[in-house]
Amino acid sequence: MKKLYLLIIFITWFAHGQKEHKSINNLLYDKELNLEKTLKKNELTELSKIDVKLDLADVYLQRGKLFQSLQVLNEIIKEHFEFKLLPKQQAKAHLGLANTYDKIIEVDRFLEHTEKFRYYFGLAYPDKEIYEALYYSYISRYYSIRMLHDKANLYARKSLSILHKNINDSHLIAVELIYLNYLFSLRNYSDNFELKKSYRDTIEIILNKKYAGYHTQKSEVKIGANMFLIDTLSNSYIEGHLESESHKQLSKQLSEIFEEQIESLDQNIGYYNLYSSRYQSLLGLVHFYNNDFTSALKNYEKSIYKITGLDQTENTFSAYNFMLSTSYLWKARSLNALYEKTKNIDYLVSNEKNLNELKKTWQLYIDDRINDKNDFNRNNYLSNPYPTIQNNYIQLYLATHNEAYKEDIFISGELSKNYTFQHLIEKSKIQPNLYNDNTLKYVKFENFIDQLNHNGEVSSLAEYDFGSKIQQETFIPKTISSSKLKENQKSNQALISYSEFKLDGHDTKLLAHLISRESDSIIYLDKISNEYLNADKNLMNQALDENNIEQFQKYAHEYYKRFLLPVEQQLNPKVEEIVIVPSPSMERLKINFSTLITDIKTSKSYKNLSYIGEKYAFSYANTAKTAYEQIINDQPNQVLTIFVPNSKEVPELIYTDNFLKKINKKYKVNLILNDDANKSNFIKHLEKDQIVMLISHGIGRNTDEIYNNGLFLSDDFLSIEDIKLSNSSCELLILAGCSTGVGFGFKDGMISFGRTMTLFGVDSVLLTTHDVDEASTLDLIEKWFYFLSEGETKAKALQRAQKKFLRNITSNKSSPKYWAGLKLVGNTKAIQLKKISEDKNFTFIILIIVGTLLFILLIFRKFRK
Question: Is the model's pTM score more than 0.90?
């Protein structure tokens, strides 16, 4: 009887909810129309108009018309300069902008307006600490999106603490967001499932009390509160627990949640809307994690329809290209997985068309919405599509062995490693005022979607004028073909480009593309698993840090067998120099190929080990283009310029003076010392001089905080962020300081001085891979200069310098930490480094010739007389 009573209550509540949904939907749509009409009337004061606009922006946000919300809110901010807005109006406007930028995944703008709403709430309500709780909650979300889990949880806890102290004022803010952002911070910070579940249940209670019927925020928060279950399902899928009862129950629970919210949104906003599209995509993910790739595919297609109207029109454009890119991406993964399951090649062929749409969508998005690397790199939701595109070509090649796919694999591999960062560097050269503001175009798109929702059709697609490409200078990525690469290679050179791909949707595999004059081979490295690629540390380097020769040999040999041996077996015996283009995971692991071990020996000294670097001269590149295509810029000043600053921030270098005396006697050197070795001088010489060297203390850590990667100059710290060259004429840059080759994680690979400098026009960069010994490093560079002056290529000269160092060094400095810390990135061609003696000999010869000619001239004149 009790169960029947509860069932009746539930049915009554559910029916009431359904009725409320329809009522709320009409009220929301009518409210939008009424607010728009009210604004057209002249009876409102200016401040009253602002309040109406704030209400309208909120309605737009609820209805998924994000760019119309942006348009109205930005108008309000601009109007502040015409007449003074109330602080509370400013606060609400910036809060609305933060919420809107959050939904269109623009992280730094979200942070910018979060800081501003805090300021104006402080002015408007100085005695209300509750707004600080909201602020710290948004800061927590910012760090969660950036995957900085410690910071995210720290600020989330601070937000909760302030909320609990000011609970009587909790009605002034969206309390559900405080708990949601705390739960969001726990997703990657804590493994405590029950703790997450308890906060999810708390959020459910808050939502049911606050929202009687439909509200978009209710749907958004409810979905957000259950996202940790997606993480659990994903882990269960990866671990192979698909048949377990817990996996099935979790899948059913998530499916019901998403289906309920999709139905609610479709009823209250319309079938075509951003929020429903996202939930449809998440529902596809649930099916994907159950190996039901056909159902996953259908949901991704629905997700695409809901933000393009593609099932009703021929439109493929969307204002929400960030969401559309994600749907195309997961559709691609579903098609790849279906191929793996059925071996029906039609799925791969179909995916080519899908991936072409993905390329267009991604191009539009980064052209319009991503202005610098932080916009891209700090956003966990955005991904370069080219690894997925390359993955499809890899599967086509493995399925057909059609040689034509090799070029597609090579080009898409090049773009997977550098396309986004290269695009952002090109974009940084354009003045911001030259960008087109496409907000009006996106507003037109939202009106098109609105018409589709209410009328079921549009009279003419042409009237909206958003189907064509956004009118902006389109970036054309720079690549090199494999045939051109072979032309630029010598017979003793080879390039190995490593790429990561996923055959089954989650297990990462590695592929090596070997290109030399004699060969063009694709090698599938099946002995490399997630255990190696996703490892937290490079075990070889860890053994070096612990000075454990036995462990070092073990792991250096394991890495050799897995990463290099299968490729080496296909190398031409003539090859002496190898350029490594690492995959992102390999770059993160910092594998030093010169120190890989071919055979394990019983030895107590590093000096006698079997290093593969004895056989091959290794260098590195971010792409094949930067390795083998020399940049043609203005003729540089033929000089070696050496900077030695006297920064007060760090201790004085001990061995540098002796190094400078030796180099100054041998080569034509332009020394810039002490206060003159400042940032502006360094950048000026970097643009004009042939060879530039900086000897200083360096810092390198794998984070993107500005002062965590760079070197000290006399007046300032030189970070990667400071490099904004347009066309450098420098052919070789040497950064002799600790960890100058260490960068921070980037989705296309590591952001480092090597990547940045070679993209800005510097041909080659010599960097350090770790905190190096000053005396050993300068000794190596001195030897390297000698071999460069003998005409060797940069890579070969470095190999010879290392071999000579190792032969002559005592056993206490035979560890690779002392001799293998230098890393060459970029072009490996020989560079002209003349000795002073050669200049003197040349001058002497000229004087003899001139003297002889004068003597002949005098004799000739005497003879004529």
Answer: no
